[in-house]
Amino acid sequence: MELSCFMDLDSASEWLIVSAGAGAKEHLAYVQEAGDFLARGNYFTAREDLPSYLIKYTLSGEGRISYEGREEAVSRGRFFWIDCRKRQEYRTASPDGSWHVLWVHFYGGASEYLYRLFREANGGRCTGVLLPDSPAEKDLRGLLALYRGAPGPDADVDASALLADLAACCIRAAGEQPPAFPPEYVRRAREYLVTHTAEPVTLDTLAGVVSVNKFYLQKLFRKYTGQSPSVFLSQLRISAAKELLRTTEKPVSAIAAETGLENVSYFIRLFRKQEGITPAQYRKLWRQRV
Question: What's the predicted TM-score (pTM) here?
Answer without folding.
Answer: 0.64
